[in-house]
């Protein structure tokens, strides 16, 4: 192992700038892309139209809460003008607060309170609709709770008489003080998200995973280049075998990338204020084992570097769409539970460890090693 480390170090010394660039690229690329996305989110606003057919205090409260959403550009319009702007795609969507809104809320009804309109080009209609629905449901739930409290107060015949308005006002005060409810709308989660087994990890780690996947492929081209130079012919005169040489070099690259991966945790925490947790280190370690072993096996199949690069880029693009990093796969996994077992990104992005794929890759490498060793013995 010392001899292999020395020979690889001699090679790295001549290309240390390029080597350092490729190793640091997942970190640099993730920070740049995340910063650009966050800047775009802050500057971009979704134009929506709000039509008010019920000029009551509760409707005004709803309008005020919608207007405080920083990602929305709210325009208060007449219905005809709002629908016209929607037809010519000046508005993403239009929402109408129907007449009798406050009356229905006080009665605890949730149906036909808000009407929504959208066009074929409306891209944010669904998340905006869900946000408004959550605000309306908050009011209807508060109203039902107020009637329940009032009924209990009346049945208990207490000295203090609670009115509907007094109960609602008190509940709002408690909500404000205790921060019981929070509704936000954004294009992507912020860098201070939460790692859990049920939700996708930070988008920063999704971006990093795709970068690391691509760079692991790119760094594995050393194996193809050495096959092109017929390096294996020299191993007839060297004390260690050619398969052992390849595996030991692959381990060196794996250790080097793992060190940079662990450094990424601290860098993202300092630069992007991402949550720091020691539980991410086992996931990073297992994820890198999968990537390095998979890239090693793929590189063994190629003799041309450019064809290898093309396939590597294609795999990265495919997994960026179908791997759960960009498009959530939760609904699809409900129908096909086997997807996480074959998806190299899913478990990492959900903060869990996939033992199956790394184990399979390592088993294939071990089998290949012993097969090559046996072939060399037979040839001698």
Blueprint (SSEs and pairs):
Layout: H1 2-14, H2 16-43, E1 46-52, H3 57-67, E2 72-76, H4 79-87, E3 93-97, H5 101-106, E4 114-118, H6 125-156, H7 164-178, H8 203-219, H9 221-228, H10 242-272, H11 280-300, H12 305-322, H13 330-335, H14 339-342, H15 346-349, H16 356-379
Give the structure's gist in a few sentences:
This protein is mainly alpha-helical and 380 residues long. The chain is 65% helix and 6% strand.
Structure characterization notes:
With 380 residues, this protein is mainly α. The protein has 2 domains: 2-38 and 201-379, no CATH class; 46-178, 3-Layer(aba) Sandwich (D-Maltodextrin-Binding Protein, domain 2). Helices cover 65% and strands 6% of the residues. It contains 16 helices and 4 strands. It has a 4-stranded mixed β-sheet with strand order 2-1-3-4, sandwiched between helices. α3 (57-67) links the parallel β1 and β2. α2 packs antiparallel against α8, α3 crosses α6 and α10 packs antiparallel against α11. It is elongated.
Beta content: 5-15%
Q: Which structural class matches the secondary elements?
A: mainly alpha
- Characterize the quaternary organization of these chains: single chain
Q: Please tell me the total number of domains.
A: 2
Tell the overall outline: elongated
Radius of gyration: 29 Å
Mean pLDDT: 79
Which regions have little confidence, pLDDT < 50, spanning 5+ residues? 183-202
Helix share bin: 55-70%
Task: Work out the number of β strands.
Answer: 4
Q: The biggest beta sheet, please?
A: 4 strands, mixed
Measured between the Cα atoms of the first and last residue, the distance is 24 Å
Please provide the ordered H/E string of secondary-structure elements.
HHEHEHEHEHHHHHHHHHHH
Strand ordering within the main sheet: 2-1-3-4
DSSP helix count? 16
